[in-house]
């Protein structure tokens, strides 16, 4: 790819054993390092937003740190704009790549403006004096991230969401073609998560940045990313990474396999995991649209196995115009009188009552 920003070539990531551990464990067969993931061949181009997904402990932070040059690869290489990172001076790397970590920053007494201005350090002299152009970039980063309202405050006084935006502002002020973010949406409420993801999408689309963020938000990753890097554990506990567009990962069953747990099932239609309801009593459901969808969810939660369109068993018929005058008719079967309800709550009580009566008889 000609506008490739980061490429990895046969990269292996992980940890060298500390000398004490190495001596304690030393046997001819014992390795001197722990490989977290291997055979990693990834590529991100400018203008792309990539989400890095994977179960806890699969190695997302380790990969982020290795891509950022904060941690050495065990083997293989990382290329930044086609140049091997191992041969680049830290200042050169800082002009190409910025890293946003979630850890609480130890700069509580620093003002927001001063922290964002730190993003200009690769371009300033040892005194850190900002030129007019630097100041302008800092102001623009503050505007872009919507942090102007608290630019004069101290970092220690900010909420998690506000602080996260400031850390992103610092990365924007650093003005690098690549931005890496380790769990930028952790601890944030839904509106803040959406705001941060749409800001990152804008940076990719409008400013041509290559953005990689690690996250546990499956739904956001499926909606927002151009590509997902999914860390998958294989038999020997070393992870491998699948890189694909979100829809292919769902259709090919990779997400389901990577996060599968007993008691949960992956719904390929919504791209989300949900409780596996082992309902034994069957209930037919006649109706469609959003009301039918939530009626089905309610019946499953109450322990029913829902059979769409079946009217030859006990069943529910929905009528009404979605927003008003909704009616649920429950036919309990065996010539029982139908129960008509105007709310889902009442319907559920009628169905549960009938299930209990069936169990007793
Ligand atoms: N400093 C370290 N020394 C040795 N092993 C480490 C070190 N840091 C992390 N690990 C191990 O490396 C593996 C990957 O950890 P990492 O933090 O990269 O995973 P993660 O996918 O980011 O996890 P999470 O989703 O829980 O944040 C884990 O088994 C972890 O125990």
Automatic annotation (TrEMBL):
Keywords: ATP-binding, Nucleotide-binding, Translocase, Transport. SUPFAM superfamilies: P-loop containing nucleoside triphosphate hydrolases. GO terms for molecular function: ATP binding; ATP hydrolysis activity. InterPro entries: AAA+_ATPase (IPR003593), ABC_transporter-like_ATP-bd (IPR003439), P-loop_NTPase (IPR027417). Signal peptide: none annotated. Residues 17-258 form the ABC transporter domain. Pfam families: ABC_tran. PROSITE patterns: ABC_TRANSPORTER_2. Gene3D superfamilies: P-loop containing nucleotide triphosphate hydrolases (3.40.50.300). Part of the ABC transporter complex HmuTUV involved in hemin import. Responsible for energy coupling to the transport system. PANTHER family: HEMIN IMPORT ATP-BINDING PROTEIN HMUV. This is Iron(III) ABC transporter, ATP-binding protein, putative. It comes from Chlorobaculum tepidum (strain ATCC 49652 / DSM 12025 / NBRC 103806 / TLS) (Chlorobium tepidum).
């Amino acid at each position: 790819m000609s506008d490739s920003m980061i490429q990895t070539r046969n990269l292996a990531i992980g940890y060298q054993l500390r000398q004490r551990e190495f001596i304690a464990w030393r046997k001819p067969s014992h390795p001197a390092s722990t490989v977290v993931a291997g055979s990693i061949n990834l590529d991100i181009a400018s203008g792309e937003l990539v989400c890095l997904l994977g179960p806890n402990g699969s190695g997302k932070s380790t990969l982020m740190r290795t891509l950022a040059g904060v941690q050495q690869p065990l083997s293989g290489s990382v290329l930044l704009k086609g140049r091997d990172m191992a041969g680049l001076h830290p200042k050169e790397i800082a002009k190409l790549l910025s890293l946003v970590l979630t850890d609480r920053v130890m700069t509580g007494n620093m003002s927001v403006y001063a922290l964002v201005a730190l993003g200009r350090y690769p371009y300033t002299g040892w005194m850190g004096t900002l030129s007019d152009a630097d100041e302008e970039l800092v102001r623009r980063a503050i505007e872009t991230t919507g942090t102007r309202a608290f630019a004069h405050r101290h970092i220690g006084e900010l909420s998690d969401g506000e602080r996260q935006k400031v850390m992103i502002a610092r990365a924007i002020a650093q003005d690098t073609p690549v931005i890496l973010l380790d769990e930028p949406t952790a601890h944030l409420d839904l509106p803040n998560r959406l705001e941060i993801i749409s800001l990152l999408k804008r940076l990719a689309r409008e400013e041509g940045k290559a953005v990689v963020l690690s996250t546990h938000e499956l739904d956001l990753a499926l909606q927002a990313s151009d590509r997902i890097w999914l860390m998958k554990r294989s038999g020997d506990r070393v992870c491998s990474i699948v890189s694909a567009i979100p829809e292919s990962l769902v259709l090919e069953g990779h997400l389901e396999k990577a996060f599968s747990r007993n008691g949960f099932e992956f719904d390929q239609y919504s791209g989300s995991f949900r409780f596996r309801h082992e309902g034994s009593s069957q209930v037919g459901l006649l109706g469609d649209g959003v009301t039918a969808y939530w009626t089905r969810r309610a019946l499953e939660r109450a322990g029913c196995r829902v059979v769409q369109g079946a009217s030859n068993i006990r069943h529910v018929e929905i009528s009404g115009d979605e927003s008003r005058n909704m009616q649920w008719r429950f036919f309990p079967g065996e010539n029982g009188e139908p129960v008509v309800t105007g709310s889902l709550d009442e319907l559920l009580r009628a169905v549960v009552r009938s299930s209990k009566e069936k169990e007793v008889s």
